[in-house]
Write a structure and sequence with these properties.
The chain has 22 helices and ten strands. It is α/β, with parallel strands linked by helices.
Length: about 525
């Protein structure tokens, strides 16, 4: 969509020219009007105009002055002059300041449209050249980025190879002292909207300061700047905040004047940026010098991690939390190199996360959806957020294991009770005795026993005793009272009553039926 501006102090003339252009179906689909040069300049700045058709004689600012001011704007805007003055001096001055054509009023419609078509052709050619140049520049930029990524990711590349690549891609920034910066969000979320125009604005800012730099996204999707040491980092951070790029962290490498050091500086910047999860949350800039002096010889709390694994399901969350506090000793972590924390997380993943995922996947798989970043500490804004999640994750597994153990204990307890009844039915049994034997609460035992057997304790005991008595009644040598005593009833009449309630007949009748 192209934009055209008509500048003339006569409204009728403006309207007439507008109608001519609109009816001709040109590529200028947006047409604006101004009654003098001052209004015209405001519209040029606001609307990004491609072609201006302007009168010469106007109040406040004439056409020639208007053209001079347009030239100061820096953009190549085409200008067609309209005038009632057939004077060579006007035409000469207008063409001197870049006017495309000088037309006399009243305007000849066809002559005007011919010049507009000429402007359209020029704009088409210019757009084609710009697109072609842009394509070439993007290709060169992509080639340079690929070569840099090759340097960064190749573990076996030599300094001689690095020098050759740098000579090929011609990075001016490496001719002066430089450093590498790695910029990221506090939280490493993929495909964040900030990525869309971040590089463009950073490039514009650094270019405005005439600072040599290269900005690109590396093979891991990280924003990398190779920049002259002249960049004032505090001012750069202020620029980022002003443009609503908040919550960013910048890892800064050491400074070097050697191009071959670029690989080492890249890794330094990436290493420095990792510390965003353990430095104070308000920190925006982390330099390699700051973190390089940290201790790297601290003993890992492997025993505490293994002990935590062994305690889960057997100890309370309070007892396990004591171990977790030993593991995540923040004072020690804050004075150690980042590898210390990385190895802690690696062992937590091995001995706890993966271990219990293999044992109870039916529970940990849904749990992993809730704690989807639990294995990657760098997906958290700060270590405190990671520790909060790992505690909740461990406690959830511990509670589940406790529940499983209790259910197992309860199930075993009812099995033991049933076996005890079958082994001791001939004794004076009651529910309190059996519940006590299996170490379960009386009321709880009653509920669980009924759920398992579909009958209460008394009826179940009756059924066991009667079934055993029916076996004994097959032997004619046993008297009825003897059978009653052998199944736990000292009173034969009471036994007969119980037997009849269960079978519908008396013991004697049952024996007689057997004899038939």
């Amino acid at each position: 969509m192209r934009k055209l501006l008509i500048v003339d102090d006569e409204k009728v003339i403006r309207a007439g020219i507008k109608i001519i252009i609109e009816r001709a179906n040109t590529s200028f689909t947006k047409i604006y009007e101004a009654k003098n040069g001052e209004e015209g300049l405001d519209l040029v700045k606001e609307k990004d105009i491609d072609l201006v058709i302007t009168d010469i004689k106007m109040p406040k600012m004439d056409g020639i002055t208007f053209i001079k001011e347009l030239n100061k704007n820096g953009k190549n805007i085409r200008v067609i002059i309209l005038s009632g003055y057939d004077e060579f001096a006007y035409a000469q001055e207008a063409l001197k300041y870049g006017a495309t054509a000088y037309l006399l009023k009243p305007v000849d419609k066809y002559e005007l449209l011919d010049f507009i078509k000429q402007v359209e052709g020029d704009l088409d050619k210019e757009a084609h050249l710009v697109a072609k140049e842009d394509h070439i520049n993007k290709y060169i930029e992509q080639f340079s980025n690929n070569e840099l990524n090759y340097i960064f990711l190749n573990d076996y590349i030599t300094n001689e190879e690095i020098d050759k690549i740098i000579d090929t891609i011609q990075l001016d920034v490496l001719h002066d002292p430089y450093y590498v910066a790695f910029i990221s969000l506090k939280t490493n979320k993929a495909n964040d909207p900030w990525e869309e125009n971040f590089k463009k604005q950073v490039n514009q800012y650094l270019s405005s300061l005439n600072i040599k730099m290269v900005c690109f996204w590396d093979a891991k999707g990280q924003f990398i700047m190779i920049v002259s040491q002249r960049l004032e980092l505090k001012e750069f951070v202020a620029f980022l905040n002003t443009n609503n790029f908040h919550n960013l962290v910048i890892g800064i490498s050491q400074i070097s004047s050697r191009g071959a050091d670029i690989k080492e500086l890249y890794h330094q910047a990436c290493e420095a940026n990792k510390y965003k999860i353990i430095v104070p949350k308000e920190s925006l800039i982390i330099t390699y010098e700051e973190i390089n002096s940290r201790s790297s010889n601290n003993d890992l709390p492997i025993n505490s991690i293994i002990k935590t694994q062994q305690m889960m399901g057997a100890k309370t969350n309070f007892e396990i939390d004591i171990q977790l506090k030993n593991i995540f000793n923040l004072e020690l972590i804050n004075r150690s190199k980042i590898h210390y924390l990385e190895e802690i997380v690696q062992n937590i993943n091995r001995y706890i996360v993966q271990h219990y995922h293999n044992i109870i996947p039916q529970f940990t798989e849904p749990l992993s959806q809730r704690f989807r970043h639990i294995t990657d500490v760098y997906r958290y804004q700060h270590i405190s957020n990671y520790i909060k999640d790992i505690r909740a994750y461990v406690f959830a597994i511990n509670d589940y294991l406790w529940q499983m153990n209790n259910e197992l204990i309860t199930s075993n307890g009812i099995d033991m009770a049933i076996k005890y009844i079958k082994d001791h039915y001939d004794k004076d049994l009651n529910m309190a005795m059996v519940a006590n034997h299996v170490s379960l609460n009386y009321s709880y035992f009653s509920q669980l026993f009924k759920e398992r057997t579909n009958m209460n304790f008394v009826d179940y005991l009756k059924e066991v005793r009667v079934k055993k008595s029916m076996e004994l009644l097959r032997d004619p040598n046993y008297k009825i009272y003897e059978v009653a005593e052998k199944v736990g009833y000292q009173n034969s009449k009471h036994f007969t009553k119980i037997f009849r309630s269960v079978t519908g007949i008396s013991p004697s009748e049952y024996r007689n039926k057997l004899a038939l």
